[in-house]
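so i finally got all the pieces together for this one. its two components total, 673 residues if u count the protein bits. some of the lines might not be protein, just check the labels. i wanna see the whole assembly predicted at once instead of chain by chain like last time, that was a mess tbh
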Amino acid sequence: MSKLLHDIKLIGDDIPWLKDMRSAGRDAFAVSGIPQPKAEAWKYTKPIRFFAEDFTPAPRGEGCLNPNKNLPFNACKIYFENGVFSSCDDDLPQGVEVLPLIEAIMFKPEIRGKIGALADVSKHPFAALNQAYLGEGVYIKVAAGTKVEKPLAIINHITADQELRQHSLRNLVIMDDSSQAEIMEYYCYDGELKSSYFVNMVNEIYISENASLHHYKLQSEAYKAAHIALNSVFVAASGEYKSFCLQKGADLSRNETKVILSAEYAKAEVDAAYIMNGWATIDTTTDIEHLKPFTQSSQLVKGVIGGQAKGVFQGKIHIAPQAVKTEGYQLHKAMLLSDEAEIDVKPELEIFADDVKCSHGAASGELNADQLFYMRSRGIGEEEARQILIDAYLNDVIAKIDNQEIRQFMSMAANPLKERE
Amino acid sequence: MEPLLEIEDLYAGVEGKEIIKGFNLVINPGEIHAIMGPNGAGKSTLSNVLCGKPGYKVTSGRVKFKGKDLLKMSAEERAREGLFMFMQYPVDIPGVSVTSFLKHAVNAVRKHRMEPELDTMEFIKLVREEGRKLGLTPEMIKRDVNVGFSGGEKKKLETLQMSVLKPDLAILDEADSGLDVDAIKIVADGVNALHTQDKGLLIITHYQKLLNYIVPHFVHIYAGGKIVTTGGRELALELEEKGYAAFVKDNQ
C-alpha cells in the first residue's frame, strides 16, 4: 500500500457511489503517488521532502471539541476541529444551507455528479488522496437571488498534539443564479508549534449565472505542518469568482486555484500574498481557463521571503480558440529579505484566440536600504521599519479585499508586529 | 552648562577613503552654527557620520551628544536621544502614509523618553496643525511619504517631521537646495519657530542664502576635512563676496 493511503473505517461506505469514488481516488493515488521532483506541476515545490514519514488519518472523534476561535469580524462560523466537522452557528442567513458534507452525500442525491467533477483525480495526486477519504467537509448552498450579508467563516482548527496526522477535507460550494456570498477559510492551530501534520484540502465551487463569490483564505498552520489545497472553480455566464489567499504558515504549503470561465462574461480575480521565513516552501499555483468570449481574469500575487525559505509561483492562463475579446492579466512580485531566500516563477500563457488582451509580469527586489535608513533616522527601530516596509509592500494586494473587516484581519495577520498590539 | 554636541579630533570616511580629517566643533544650547564648504569638502560625509548612516566609518576621535557617546548609538537611538537630520534628499516611501510614518516615529521617541504614546486623534490633530503652518494640506498629509511631492514640499515635510519630533539638535543638510525664495522663507520660519534657548542648530550649506533667514551665531568654513576658519555671521557674507578659494588657500 502506498504511503499516506490507509485502510480505515469510513462513514458511508454503504453508499455505492461514494464507495466507488473513494476507490477511484485510491486507485488514482496508487498510480501517481506523491509527486516526484520531475513532475512538471511540482518541480519547484518538491513535496516528497515533506513526506519522509507516513501520515495517518485521525480516528473519528479525536479531539472533537469546539475550538471557539474568536474572529475579529462579523461572520457566521463553521468549525472543524482536527479535520472533523464540529459545529455551525445556528443563525444562518436565509437562503443559505450548510451541512456536514457526509450528510449532504446521504440526503442530497443531487450533489452526486458535482463532487469530484471539478477536482480531477488523474491530474491532481493530492486531490486523488483526498477523494480516497471523501466524507469530511462542508456543503454550502446559496439559493438563487440570495445576497448573504455576513461572511461565512470556515475555521479549520488543529490541536497540534498528535504527531503525523493527515486531515482530508472537501468543501462543496454551490452558488445558485444571481446569488452573492463571501466565504472565509481560516486555518489555525493551538499547541505544539513544531508538531508535524498534513492538511489536504479540496474546494469544489460552482458559480451559476450572474452569481458572485468572494473567497478569502488565511493559512496560518504550525511551522512543521504541510498544507496542500486545490480550489477548483466553475464559473457560468456573467458569474464572478474573486479570491484572496494569504499563506503564512506551514513548512510546505500550496494553494492551487483552477478556474474555468465557462461562458461569456464570466470573471475571475485570483489574488494572493505569502510571507515566509525559515526553511519553508510556499507555493501559489493558478490555472485560469478562458473558454468563451468576453471572459476576464486578473491576478496579483505578492510574496515576502526571508531566511532560507522558497516561494513558488506558477500561473497559467489558457485562452481557447473561440474565446475572443477576453482579458487576462497576471502579475507576480516578490521581495527577498535574505541572500539565501529563493523564488521560482513560472508564468504560462497559452493563447489560441486572436483579439485578446493578455499580459503577465514578474518582478523581484529587496528591502530598500535608503527607505530603511530614512525611517531609522526618525527613531523607528530597524525591526519595526522593516515590518512597516513589508506592510507597505503587501498593501496593494491586501487592498483588493472588499470586505473591510476581513481586510483588516488579513493586514494584521500579515504583520506580526500589529498582531502583538 | 553641558554642550549639546562635542566633536573632538574626528577622522572618518566611507568605502575606505578618509574624508573627515581632524574635525573639531562644540555646539552649546541656544547656538546656531553654520558649516560652509565648497563641493567635495565632505559636508555630506559629516552629516552622514553624525546621523549614523550605515557604511560610514569613524577611524578616530570622539563625538558626544548631550554628554553621551554618539558613535556608540545606532541611527534610531540617536534620533530618540534628540538628534534630527533634515535631509538633503528625503526618501519616497510608497505605501506608507505621512501620518502613519510620523506616528511610528513620534511614538518610538516618546517610548524612549518613557512618555505615553499619543492616541491617534490627538496625533492627527497635532500633525494637521503643524502642517497647516507650513502650508501642507490635510490631503498631502494623507499621501504616502514624499511620493509625488515637489522639491519644496519634501523640505516642508522635513520641517514638519522636525516640528513633531522636537529634537534637541537638528542638522540641516543643504536644506535650501532646490527651493525658491518663498519656500525657503516658509522652511526657515518653521525651523526658527522651533529654535529655543535649550536647543541647537547646525546648518550645513554651500551657499549663504539660507543664512539670511536662519541667522547663525557662528560660521565655520570647512575644507579638506576640517574647519579652516571660524567667524560670525559676517564671515558668510565675506565668503560670498570672495569665494572659497581665498579662505582655503589662506589656510594651506
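The first strand of chain B starts at residue 5 and ends at 14.
Chain B is about 40% helix and 30% strand.
anyway lmk what u think
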